Amino acid sequence: MTSTVSLLSFLLEGRLLLGYAAAFGAAALVGGAAGEAAVAAALTRGARARASGAVLALAALAGVGAAGSAALCGMQLLSDVRAREGLGFRSICSYT
Questions:
Q1: What angle do CA 96, 35, 32 make, to 5 degrees?
Q2: What is the full DSSP assignment across the chain?
Q3: Which end of the chain is less enclosed by CB atoms within 10 A, N or C?
C-alpha cells in the first residue's frame, strides 16, 4: 500500500521516472517471489503446528508494522492540524 501511494504521489507531481520505477518494480517482484518461496520452503520443512505458529507470527509482525505506521501518521496529522499547516496537497519531497 505504501509503495502504491508513493508511486501515485510522484505520478501526480510529474516527477515519476519510468526507468527507475520499472527497475524498482522488477526488483520488488523478484524479492517478493524469493521471500514467498523461502517462507513456503521453511513452512513445508517444519511440523504443521510450527507452520501455523510461523504464519501467525508473520501476520502479527505485519500488524505491528501497520499499527506503527498508522500511529506515526496520526501523530503527524495532529501536529499539522494544531499548527494549521500542511493540510492540503504538498510535494512528497517537502517531507525530507
A1: 55
A2: -HHHHHHHHHHHHT---HHHHHHHHHHHHHHHHHHHHHHHHHHHHS-HHHHHHHHHHHHHHHHHHHHHHHHHHHHHHHHHHHHT-S-S---GGGG-
A3: C
Question: How crowded is residue 68: how many other Cβ atoms within 10 Å of its Cβ?
Answer: 10
Note the residue count of the chain: 96
Q: Which residue, 24, 18, 23, is CA-closest to 2?
A: 24
pTM score above 0.90: no
| CB 39 within 8 Å of CB 58 | yes
Q: Residue written as cell 505485519?
A: 62
The predicted model gives 43-62 an average pLDDT of 74
